[in-house]
């Protein structure tokens, strides 16, 4: 798989998706630091040092030549601050590339449509980048995340992965 387009700034009505940088780690550790945020996504809040190490790996890129990692932080323009992340793991397949997406918005900014706006912007960017299939995995009890997936154009499937339902937007978009 070729590396394709590199993440660029993606803008929507209220947000900018900024390509992930290692320097975002300290601010993002605070944004993602609420233990309640991890109820459905698992794990626990990362320390700034742990997040910096993770961001170093992500920015370096996937070691698998058939996989591309694209990661952004979400900047809420009106507040001028980072409020979450979106990501796409793109894998080569015989029928075209598949982008597996995810989003996380800090608890202080939830309920304001930021995740929906960010996921839509990401899905639109992937479409312009010739990624014909987009999937997400959503915990069956995470109704807010299911609403984000639906608003971004994905539909639930009968497939499950690690206890999460797969949502799909196919090449017919």
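Q: What amino acid sequence fits the structure above?
A:
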């Amino acid at each position: 798989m070729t590396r394709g387009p590199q993440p660029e700034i993606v803008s929507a009505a209220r947000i900018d998706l900024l390509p992930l940088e290692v320097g975002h780690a300290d601010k993002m550790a605070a944004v993602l630091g609420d233990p309640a945020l991890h109820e459905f996504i698992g794990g626990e809040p990362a320390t700034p040092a742990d997040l910096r190490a993770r961001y170093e790996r992500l920015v370096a890129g996937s070691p698998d030549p058939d996989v591309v990692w694209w990661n952004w932080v979400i900047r809420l323009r009106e507040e001028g601050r980072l409020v979450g992340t979106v990501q796409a793991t793109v894998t080569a397949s015989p029928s075209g590339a598949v982008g597996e997406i995810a989003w996380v918005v800090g608890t202080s900014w939830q309920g304001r449509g930021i995740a929906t706006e960010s996921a839509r912007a990401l899905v639109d960017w992937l479409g312009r980048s010739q990624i014909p299939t987009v999937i997400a995995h959503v915990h069956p009890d995470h109704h807010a995340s299911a609403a984000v997936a639906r608003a971004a154009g994905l539909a639930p499937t009968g497939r499950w992965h690690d206890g999460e339902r797969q949502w799909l937007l196919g090449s017919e978009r």
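Q: And what stands out in the fold?
A: The chain has a mean pLDDT of 93.
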